[in-house]
Amino acid sequence: MGDRRKGAEAHFPADRMQELPDKFRRYFPITERYVYLNHASVSPLSSAARDCMVKVLDGSMLCGSRIWEEMERRQTASRSRAAQLVNAKPHQIAFLRNTSEAISAIANGIQWRSGDNIVTTAAEFPANVYPWRRVACEHGVDMRIANGVDSHMVDLEELLALADERTRVVALSWVQFATGQRLDIQRAGKFCRERGILFVVDAVQGLGALELDVERDFVDAFAAGAHKFLLGPKGISILYLSDQALQQIAPTVIGWTAVKDHGDYLVHDLDFRDGAIRFEGGTANVAGICGLGEAIDLLLQAGPADIERHVLSLSAYLISGLEKKGYQVTSATAPAEISAIVTCLHQRYSAAEVCSHLEGRNIITSARCRGLRIAPHFYNTQADLDALLEELPQ
Question: Which is deepest, 9, 62, 65, 280, by most CB within 10 Å?
């Protein structure tokens, strides 16, 4: 995988902008009814993911426990695909219910000492705030919160300047949910690695649309729910823990499958399984894991680097169109900071009013923090964005 900062600016030329949609749009039947630009909230399932989940459920309905070994193989394949997507190893991947649970598993599993501190930012989504606030209250840990230039944009210099010799964790969203600001996690990760600080990333608003390499980007741990840019189902998420993080974070919610001899029901030794799978605990959401695996397989077929270039090109095109139409673009606009999320303001109408107006014309967006939030993906086209721009009130 290459350097993201270079790739982010190397957008597709106009004559290549149809390549991914032409090849993969057929997997998304929602395009027959809507111009869907709300992937930062909830993504539609692809037909491939849906069909896979139906197979799992049909197998359970028709065969019950007889399909146990097949389901184990499918889960193993999903784990391998998730690892491949981010250049990790399968034993470093666990499947939990959602981003909040995955971040909580990290926060609760650290052996905190009074006087430790956590560095984060005021712009974070609550899923990356409340788990850290709880341990701060319970263990006498200080939360150091960078405000940035304003309440929504993050100043990475300001944030990293808050770290010192007692900093245990820097907790940061890769892409900010309200502004689409894409942070230089490689720089933040290198800073943390050089100082022995755990770098924990909320990757839910980036993974699937942008290319992540946990080795290149010095990521110690990340959490990402499946139902946004990963194009998977709700109720399942990826937890990644590096080998270094696995040595420092212990499971605190422990189920019957967390131990090595989980098949011997009368052996009760607390001897954890190797790798991140120990965090999964009990009986798994098999349909969700398999659906996520199929969704990731589609992303791998498209190519993470090509997906990133495509969505960044769409975002750049959208920003230009919004500015020409007189809208105030409130999301990040610098080439190194744009993502698959673009936000804007109308001078007269509220974001909720504009969102409702668009929905009446089968164009799906969302309103967040006073702004209209538009979030395309790799199967969207410039024609989709033109339809949006045409319907936006002047």
Answer: 280
What is the rounded CA–CA span in Å between residue 302 and residue 318? Answer: 22
Q: State the CATH architecture for 50-301.
A: 3-Layer(aba) Sandwich (3.40)
Task: Tell me the pLDDT tens digit for each residue of 288-314.
Answer: 999 999 999 999 999 999 999 999 999
Contacts 24+ apart (CB under 8 A), 151-157: 151/122, 151/123, 152/123, 152/176, 152/178, 152/179, 152/181, 152/330, 152/369, 153/123, 153/179, 153/181, 153/332, 154/121, 154/123, 154/181, 154/183, 156/183, 156/184, 156/187, 156/188
Same fold, 4-44+303-391 and 50-301: no
Q: What are the residues whose beta carbons fall under 8 Å from the beta carbon of 123, sequence distance 6 or more?
A: 148, 151, 152, 153, 154, 173, 176, 178, 179, 181
Answering whether pTM is above 0.90, one says yes
- Homologous superfamily (CATH) of 4-44+303-391 is Aspartate Aminotransferase, domain 1 (3.90.1150.10)
